[in-house]
Write a structure and sequence with these properties.
Length: 337
Amino acid sequence: MPFVRFYHSLINLNLFQVSINSGKYFVSNNRRRCSSTTRSMTSLSHVVNQINEGMIKNVIVMVGAGISTRSGIPDFRSPETGLYANLKRFQLEDPCDVFDFDYFLKNPRPFFELAKELYPSGKYLPNEAHFFIKILHDRGILKRLYTQNIDGLERAADIPEGKLIEAHGTFSSATCIKCKKQCKGKEIKNQIFEGEIPRCHMTDNCRAVIKPDIVFFGKDLPKRFFTFQHDFTKCDLLIVMGTSLQVQPFADLINSVNPRTPRILFNREKVGPFVKCKRKEDFTMTGDISDSTRKFMDMLGWEHQLDSYLQKQQKEKKKARGKEICGSSKGEKKTDR
């Protein structure tokens, strides 16, 4: 199946700016066009009770770029700070060319320049939304996570690779565009960050470019994506987070669950089928995604587990920062001598 221009969703990251409507959570059941807060909370509480009573065992989560804005991932089109702004010196006719394979064959440098910002490196860290999904796994009820994102924050949250369907590719592996041999993404990471174009080292006399396994325009999605029916037929709760539900074929996944299966949308605003409110099993929590995720975890009684992950991450961040400062100080002393 040909791949549709999925990066449209990434380009529109500004749809998911960190905010929550006047600091309030809006929790709603679409049956009443999200107008009856008390009734909606009661209905959503029924889903919460089913989770806590062990009646829900196969949760599927679908996520898009909106879950990563709290982590500080830049958008693409902001005039001064957007990722495309960093590519102006390459004078691209269309910034989207950076994800066009034919253009990549002619000039791979713009992509690798952009890759320096997007490449998982510890610069950006998982937030409440990522750890919520990790906790679903910890509790043994995460069937699968389908992600449109290429930021690697799901892996950084220690969600197992076997639970991940990275619909738009990954930086964790890379492939030579000529001999087609694969290597781990970390093998070319240093070259990318040093501004070099990684070349094949896996086949004698092959010095072709090695490209991270990110899906470009016009290319097929990973084969694993098309096994989704095996997952969705078993799904007893679908959670959708931070996506516009406009990019196909990813957006169509939402219709693959049983019509009676509850679906919950965590998003800044209602999107897709959640707008028309036709399905009584649909619920929405609108506003800032990280904040509404925490609200839902409070309802589940899991907030202590969430705080534990966030505190652990903060300690590791401080520890890593301390090592950097220590290393920098030693370097300065050697220079002084």
